[in-house]
Amino acid sequence: MDTIARIWADLGGRVGGPMSFRLLLQPTMAALFAIRAGIVDGRTNQAPYFWAILHDPAHRRHLIDEGWKAVARVFGLAIGMDAIYQIVVFRWFYPFEALIVAFLLACVPYLLIRGPVGRLARRVQPRKETV
To answer: What is the pLDDT of residues 48-104, one digit of tens each?
Structure first.
């Protein structure tokens, strides 16, 4: 139980601590990748990303691989920057905390943004006229 309390306190301390700019930079980068992929999804008339992962087992592996390729660099950057933060602030490295932070900063924004952008792109794309 002490470990969970420490992790919770450590995660909260990152908001106002040193290197807090990364809390804006990394989700922004993930969002840009999600927007780019969402526009492609909308133009190709694909199902919303997160919905398709949950409800389309035939394509789930492909979708996860595709999403991972898009956020892998941001995820790696988040782990690296969190490692630097931990060494500066705690004088120690907690790998599980770094994974949590990286997931929150890279994967969550990507999952939340790609689907709605795809839907929006599908609505605003020019309709083909049938003659």
So the answer is: 899 899 999 999 999 999 999 989 999 999 999 999 999 998 899 999 999 999 999
Q: What is the DSSP letter of 17?
A: S
Tokens (6 digits) for 93: 């490295």
In a domain, 91, yes or no: yes
Q: Answer yes or no: is 6 within a domain.
A: no
| DSSP letter string, 51-100 | HHHHH-TTTHHHHHHHHHHHHHHHHHHHHHHHHHHHHHHTSS--HHHHHH
Is position 47 within any domain? yes
Domain tally for the chain? 1
Q: Which helix H or strand E contains 22, and what residues bound it?
A: helix 22-43
Look at residue 62 and tell me if it is in a domain.
Answer: yes
Enumerate residues 6+ apart whose C-beta is below 8 A from 10: 90, 94, 97
- Domain ranges, residue 116: 22-124
Instruction: Name the token pair of 10.
Output: 């450590």
Its pTM stands at 0.81
Closest CA to 9 of 100, 83, 81, 76: 100
Q: Where do we find the tokens 């004088």? A: 91
